[in-house]
Amino acid sequence: MFSDGFLQCSNRKQSRRVFNLQMKRDGFSMSRFPKLAVLFIALPVLFILLLICRDERLYPIIAAGFKHDSYRLNGDKLLGGLLAPNFRKASCLSRYQSISYRKSSPHKPSSYLVSKLRDYEKLHKSCGPGTEAYKRSIKQLMSGQIDSSSKCKYVVWVAFCGLGNRILSITSAFLYAVLTNRVLLINEEPDMSGLFCEPFPDASWILPMDFPFKNQLYSFEQDYPHSYGNMLKNNTINSSMELLPSHLYLYLSHDYDHHDKLFFCDQDQIVLRKIPWLIMKSNVYFLPSLFLMSSFEEDLDKLFPDKETVFHHLGRYLFHPSNEVWKLITTYYKHYLAEVEERIGIQIRVFDNETSPFQYVMDQILTCARKEKLLPEVDMDKSVSAQYPKKISKAVLITSLIPDYFEEMKSMYLKHPTLNGEVIAVYQPSHEEEQQSENNLHNKKAWAEMNLLSLTDVLVTSAWSTFGYVAQGLGGKRPWILYKINGTIPDPVCGRGMSMEPCFHAPPVYDCKAKSEVDTATIVPHLRHCEDISWGIKLFNISQ
Ligand SMILES: Nc1nc2c(ncn2[C@@H]2O[C@H](COP(=O)(O)OP(=O)(O)OP(=O)(O)O)[C@@H](O)[C@H]2O)c(=O)[nH]1
Ligand SMILES: [Mg+2]
Questions:
Q1: Ligand 1 site, residue 454, Cβ cutoff 6 A
Q2: pTM value surpassing 0.70
Q3: What is the structure's pLDDT at 538?
Q4: CB atoms within 10 A of CB 157
Q5: Contact yes or no for 406/426 (Cβ under 8 A)
Q6: Of all protein residues, whose CA lies closest to atom 18 belonging to ligand 1?
Q7: Is 397 helix (H, G, I), strand (E, B) or coil?
Q8: How far is residue 397 from each of residues 215, 405, 414, 450, 531, measured CA to CA in Å?
Q9: Nearest Cα to Cα of residue 303 among 475, 455, 115, 42
Q10: Is 440 in the pocket of ligand 1 (CB under 6 A)?
Q11: Nearest protein CA to atom 10 of ligand 1, as residue
Q12: What is d(CA 420, CA 539) in angstroms, rounded to the nearest whole number?
């Protein structure tokens, strides 16, 4: 059952069950109405609904959609104005239903963020794929000449690395697009298709297949001659040049060099602002460094008065699981996690088996759970006597590429009684054995697991992992971080995150004005080093 919980989903069976539940809950009883009258009312309504959903093959999930509509009046479905209201519900059920699964966030978006997002949506709709403005912009791109009358400018994001990295770098690219009035387009490789709903109303964020450089994008690397960094290095671009190119590549990945990093200098943004097409390859959460640029300072202060909530808001704005992934999430949740008093998510990511052997990691997890009182201890000297059905009080959701941690913890709680009498159940949705970021189904499972983790009440994450950062940000939680094991188990084994923001693993250490090195974690109070990576930087709430 646990070998791959996701693959057990049977869509039709589940939707029938949900539909039956719905009928029961609403107390719909045929004996109250003459059957013929009911038929007269119901048939046209059903017909219209089937017409609406016909093109999307959504019959199996209509019932689930109805069930969750009842939450509309209770919860703030639009997340404090974060989400635009003008979407068709059936096209993205998670957008409206996640509030039924996730506790309402105490962090509300600022009214300035809400109005900037609505402005962005308008811009995207008027410049996005399929519009006349887009077609003109493509002509401009092909001609190589800048047309100063064009009001549309773009950032094209190019995929790279694991899903956690991708989500964080897309978020960074989006904030950059909002700050610079650009439209964000995603170069979606097949491995990412069907993961997310479209985030913007009446427009697509997917780079069209006929984009001129589409087939070259995957081969764009750091040494690409048309990248901003290389053009600076070769003196083929500067701020006083009159004839600037209509497109430039930006290489903002973990191994970028000094010239690529000049992207983060205000002087360089003066040039970049003029270029209509910026093609960006990034695998990092570079967003914190935007907070060090004076050109964005005023806007960012108004957008995010609480600096700890940047990814929390932007992540929940941008990344809604597709109907297919949402089905995996909700089926699993209802089956294993819904009925318990508390859910504990433990995300286990081991980067190096040599320096982090299995037993070290296992001991670290159990010590952290015991010391921080996240889970009850067991009496190893006793065995669980003849089992009578007892109510499960806590569910542990483990995510990991391998099943071993899950097996050990599950058998511990099955074989031995807990000291406080609680019954603990342990689950793991999948064990993919190894990272396969070019495999679409693998990415769907990873995305579903990030979401399931984000629905837990207490979250334990692994140091350095962008997978864990996404879960904590979407869930709005400061996690317990399992510190990196480097040959020895660290002491303390874990610690509470001081901010739910992700860490930028590869920040520039350069003062653009002084043209010298600087520790960028010492310049403003809301940017400090991360709890899990000493050289990384992240955003903190200033009052912390
Ligand atoms: N389903 C599943 N996949 C995982 C898990 N851990 C890692 N993976 C896979 O491995 C990838 C790791 O990349 P990220 O999502 O960026 O996570 P990360 O921990 O930062 O790892 P790196 O980027 O490789 O350093 C994920 O996207 C998944 O594809 C897990 O617990 N469950
Ligand atoms: Mg990563």
A1: no
A2: yes
A3: 98
A4: 27
A5: yes
A6: 465
A7: strand
A8: 40, 11, 15, 11, 23
A9: 115
A10: no
A11: 435
A12: 39
Contact 224, 248 (CB under 8 A): no
Residue 144 Cα to ligand 1 middle (Å): 39
Classify residue 213 by its DSSP letter.
T
Mean pLDDT of 172-180: 98
Any idea which ligand is nearest the CA of 437?
1
Q: Is the CB of 432 under 6 A from ligand 1?
A: yes
CA–CA separation, 171 vs 225, rounded Å? 26
CA of 257 to the centre of ligand 1 (A): 25
Tell me the two tokens of residue 85. Answer: 């209201």
Give residues with Cβ within 8 angstroms of 150, minimum separation 6. 133, 136, 137, 140, 276
In three-state form (DSSP H/G/I as H, E/B as E, the rest C), the secondary structure along 98-146 is HHHHCCCCCCCCCHHHHHHHHHHHHHHHHHCCCCHHHHHHHHHHHHCCC
Residue identifier of the C-alpha nearest atom 22 of ligand 1: 162
User: Would the CB of 467 count as within 6 Å of ligand 1?
Assistant: yes
The closest residue, in CA terms, to atom 30 on ligand 1 is 400
Average pLDDT value for residue range 501-527: 96
pLDDT of residue 77: 81
390-415 pLDDT, tens digit per residue, is: 789 999 999 999 999 999 999 999 99
Ligand 1 touching residue 164 (CB < 6 A): yes
d(CA 170, CA 158): 9
Q: Which two tokens stand for residue 539?
A: 């955003």
Averaged confidence pLDDT in the chain: 87
H or E stretch at 332: helix 323-332
* Closest ligand (CA of 347): 1
Contact, 150 vs 134, CB < 8 A? no
In this structure, of 167-176, 185-194, 234-243, the range with the lowest mean pLDDT score is 234-243
φ, ψ at 359 (rounded to 5°): -65, -35
DSSP output for 382-429 = S---S-------EEEEEE-SSSHHHHHHHHHHHHS-BTT---EEEE-S
Ligand 1 in contact with 165 (CB < 6 A)?
yes
Decide whether any atom of ligand 1 lies within 6 Å of the 505 Cβ.
no
Q: Please give the angle made by the CA atoms of 41, 43 and 47, to the nearest 5 degrees.
A: 130
How far away, in angstroms, is 165 Cα from ligand 2 center?
5
State yes or no: pLDDT of 63 exceeds 60. no
* Amino acid identity, position 284: V
Q: For 162-174, what is the mean pLDDT?
A: 98
The predicted pLDDT at position 508 comes to 97
Q: What's the sign of the alpha-carbon dihedral 22, 27, 31, 34?
A: negative
Continuous segment of H or E residues that includes residue 414: helix 404-415
- Rounded Cα distance between 362 and 374, Å, is 15
Query: Do you know the residue count of the chain?
Result: 544
Residue of minimum CA distance from atom 11 in ligand 1:
162
d(CA 304, CA 301): 5
